[in-house]
Amino acid sequence: MATTDGVSNGMTEPCAVCDTDTLHEVSVQLVTEAGGGENAQYSREPYRVRECQRCGNRESQRMNNA
Ligand SMILES: [Zn+2]
């Protein structure tokens, strides 16, 4: 395969689909969430989004664990 030099935010992490460690592109996105209750409070929560560069599987994980 081609060299991976120059990939700035690539990380090798396990992929559930590939069932092995693969290169992932990792980014953080702010996702607007509706809070519970009648007085809906919308908060922007950071999510860590990673995308497998091998199979394209994309996973997001909330960074603030309640
Ligand atoms: Zn994968």
Task: Describe the 3D structure.
With 66 residues, the protein is mostly beta strands. It has one domain (10-60). 0% of the residues lie in helices and 56% in strands. It contains no helices and 4 strands. It has strands at residues 10-15, 20-34, 42-52, 58-62. It has a 4-stranded antiparallel beta sheet, with no helix packed on it. It starts with 9 loop residues before the first strand and ends with a strand. The relative contact order is 0.25. The model has no long low-confidence stretch (mean pLDDT 83). InterPro entries: DUF7835 (IPR057157). This is DUF7835 domain-containing protein.
How many domains comprise the coordinates?
A: 1
What share of the residues lie within helices? under 10%
User: Alpha-carbon distance between the termini?
Assistant: 41 Å
What class do helices, strands and sheet pairing give?
Answer: mainly beta
Uncertain spans: none
Mean pLDDT: 83
List bound small molecules. Answer: zinc ion
* H/E series: EEEE
β-sheet strand percentage: over 45%
Evaluate the radius of gyration: 15 Å
Largest pleated sheet:
4 strands, antiparallel
- Anisotropy-based shape: elongated
Please report the total strand number as a whole number.
Answer: 4
Counting DSSP H or I runs of 4 or more residues, the number of helices is 0
Biggest sheet, spatial arrangement of strands: 1-2-3-4
